[in-house]
Amino acid sequence: MRADRTPVTYRAGGFSPRMIQALGAASFVAVIAALEAAARLGWIGPLSFPAPSAIGAALADLYRSGLLAQHLGASLRRLAVGWSAGVASGLVIGFALGVSTFARSLGLPWVAAISAIPKIALLPLFIIWFGIGEGSKYATIAFGAFFPTVINTFGGVDNIPRNLIRMGQSFNLKPLSIILAIVLPGTLPAILSAFRISASIGIILLVSAEMISAQYGIGAYIIEQQNLFQLDRLMAGVVLLMAVGLAVYGIIAVLERWLLRWR
């Protein structure tokens, strides 16, 4: 009897999505072109949504006046300082909750209770504590970035397979070596996910804080143009926020490819 030699299709490739940069760029171009066409055809009124060309002209004017560097620089400085402080402290507390019974018993109820508070609601309190200057803005951003980092880091540590830790202990590794060689690499995906979440929250809180009390910053620029009812300039500020978000996402993506290259 002749054996069937029909090749079997390989079906164990798994999910391997990848980013096609050109496709993402094309989607931006398509949306901008559609909005420009709708504005020129009169389907969208200038009082509802300005044409992309008008937004581009507003951005060009902002750059030529020198205000772009002032507003963008002030916002980036606040975001960098506040986010870094929140993430750094969140990593320390998250690891402590993950590896220490005492820290988990004492700290986890507080994290669960305080993380549910809308962070922007505490901005008036931060202004009372730290003043109306930069301190209150840094504190608001740091507070918002802290809790996603704590929760994701704690969850990442808690999900490390215990067999790996027991194996390290069986080889007589010290606790610090186990944390650096086993726990930290296994927690990196959760930490990088926390970076993305906390960065988004940080940008939201940055704009909110600048709208309340700031002379320079993207949020201050947006609220100023809203009061003047300059929609093209207002949308220029929104475009700046989108650019900041894309830049932060890109930096974290590069960091992820570097730190998780072992995958």
Structure overview:
The chain is mostly helical. The chain is 76% helix and 0% strand. The chain has helices at residues 21-40, 52-64, 67-99, 101-114, 123-130, 134-158, 162-170, 175-212, 218-228, 231-259. The radius of gyration is 24 Å and the shape is flat.
The helix content is over 70%
Q: Supply the number of helical segments.
A: 10
The biggest beta sheet is recorded as:
none
Give the H and E element order: HHHHHHHHHH
Would you tell me which CATH topology applies? MetI-like fold
Shape: flat
Report the uncertain regions. Answer: none
Number of strands: 0
Number of domains: 1
The CATH architecture classification is: Orthogonal Bundle
Arithmetic mean of pLDDT: 86
Tell me the distance between the termini: 46 Å
Alpha-carbon Rg, integer: 24 Å
In percent terms, what proportion of residues is strand? under 5%
CATH class: Mainly Alpha
In short, what is this structure?
By secondary structure, the chain is mainly alpha-helical. Helices cover 76% and strands 0% of the residues. It contains ten helices and no strands.
Give me the secondary-structure topology.
Elements: H1 21-40, H2 52-64, H3 67-99, H4 101-114, H5 123-130, H6 134-158, H7 162-170, H8 175-212, H9 218-228, H10 231-259
Features:
single chain; mainly alpha; MetI-like fold; 10 helices; 76% helix; flat
